[in-house]
Amino acid sequence: MDTLNLPTFGHKISEIDGKAHIFDELRRKYVRLTPEEWVRQHMIHLLLSHYRYPKALIRCEGGLLLNQRQKRTDLLVFDRQGQPFLLVECKAPHVPINQSVFDQIARYNHVHRAPYLIVTNGLMHYCCCVDHETDAVTFLDDFPPFD
């Protein structure tokens, strides 16, 4: 897997049916190791270890219904009141972060209404704060701390 612009962590990789799998602490099982999953697992560990987000408040690959179609969010973090706090969209390192990626997370956030969004391909990271009253978007220099 590619070296990412994210802190390394003690990952567990195993071969299952001839394919590489990585252990996901949130789902408590091995999942197929794809370039996007590699980025997602790095983001999970960054949020858990560096930003101290509670594991119990992070949902991985959660479903949502958007225009009568089933979609999946990469990571959704809830606040202590159970409301969406942070939505994360992960892409493989070779996928450029462009307007279509921002459009995708904006569509997902139309359902969740989280105040913070992160888009990353493991090499480039963008974080913004969304004011749902005015639709103003402010890009941040760092990821939001968990209160």
Automatic annotation (TrEMBL):
Domain named Type I restriction enzyme R protein N-terminal: residues: 35-144
Any one GO molecular function term: endonuclease activity
Gene3D superfamilies referenced in this protein's UniProt entry, alphabetically: 3.90.1570.30
Cited InterPro entries: HSDR_N
Keywords: Endonuclease, Hydrolase, Nuclease
Protein name, as recorded: Restriction endonuclease subunit R
Species this protein is from: Rudanella paleaurantiibacter
